[in-house]
Amino acid sequence: MPFAELQVYSVEEADVTGGVCVVRCVGGVARAGQVYAVGELRLWLRRIERYGRAVGSFDAGHTAKVHLTGAVVALLSRGQVLTSVPPDGHALADLEAWLATDPPLLDEPAPRALRVMAGSRMQDEGLADAVRLRWGRVALAAVYRCARAEGTGDLVRAPEVAYVRGYLIRTFGPGPERGGDPAALCRELLALIDLTPAEAAARGRIWRDLPAAEILHLRRIKFLIPWLVLVRPHLADGDPLAGVVDAWEAVRARMP
C-alpha cells in the first residue's frame, strides 16, 4: 500500500454511508481504493475528481474532490489530516460491513490483498475460533471478488474456494457457519471436472505429447484433488462420492 496523507479543506456533503470532501494531498500519492484512518475508524477512498473528471490518483501539493465511504465523513473538520493505512489495518467488523454492500472492485482493499490477509487471519491460532471463522467467510468473499476482478473461470477459481472451505471443514468441522457440507463441496468440485479418473490417467501417461492447453487443463484438475481428499474423512464409506474421491486420489500421481 502506498503511503498518503490528505488534509481536509471542506466537507461538501455527507450522510450515514459517506460523503464528498475537498482535500489537499500533503504527503505521498493518494489513489482511488486506499483506506484512511480516523482514529479506530476507517474511510474508503472510492473516487477522485479533478477539474470535473475522474482520475486514479493525485500527489502531494494538489487538491481534489474525493468520494469517501464511511459514516465518519460527517464528523471531519477543516484542517484534519487523514493517513492511509495498509490492508492489515482493517478491523474485521469494518470489512464485514463493507463487503455486505458488494462494493465496486476498485475499492480498497484490492481483492487479492484482502484474500491474503483474511486467509492469514483465518489460520491464526492465537485468535478465538469464532473470529477465525469470520475471517474465513471474509476470505471466501475475497476469492469470489478476485475471480470477478480478474475474469477467471470456475476451474481456475475452484482451488482457492476449496482451500478456504476445506480448511474450515478440517479445522472446525462441517456446518453452515463453518466450511459448509463436505459432500456439497465434493459435488461442486467434481462438477468442474470433465474427465473420468481413467481418462485422466490415460492422458497422464502421454502428457508430454499433449498440447500445452491440455497439459494446463490436467494440472488444474490435479490441483482440485487434494481438496477432495481433505474432506474425504467426512464422507460416509458407503457414499458413492467417497469412491469417486478415492479413484481420483489414486490417479493424481500420474497427472502432470
Write a structural description.
- The chain is α+β, with helices and mostly antiparallel strands and 256 residues long.
- The protein has eight helices and eight strands, in the order E-E-E-E-E-E-E-E-H-H-H-H-H-H-H-H.
- The chain has helices spanning 92-100, 111-122, 129-150, 154-172, 182-190, 197-205, 212-231, 240-251; strands at 4-15, 18-31, 35-38, 41-50, 53-55, 57-59, 63-69, 81-85.
- The chain has a six-stranded antiparallel beta barrel.
- A hairpin with a 2-residue loop joins strand 1 (4-15) and strand 2 (18-31).
- The longest helix is centred in the middle third of the chain and has 22 residues, at 129-150.
- It is elongated and about 70 Å long.
Q: What is the succession of H and E elements?
A: EEEEEEEEHHHHHHHH
Helix count, DSSP H or I runs of 4 or more residues: 8
Helix content estimate: 40-55%
Structural class: alpha+beta
What global shape is seen?
Answer: elongated
Which radius of gyration do the C-alpha atoms yield?
A: 23 Å
> What oligomeric assembly is this protein in?
single chain
Report the end-to-end length measured between terminal Cα atoms: 37 Å
Please count the beta strands (DSSP E, at least 2 residues each): 8
Unreliable segments of 5+ consecutive residues: none
Strand percentage: 15-25%
What is the typical, i.e. mean, pLDDT? 84
Strand order of the largest sheet: 1-2-7-4-3-8
Q: Which sheet architecture does the biggest sheet show? A: 6 strands, antiparallel, barrel
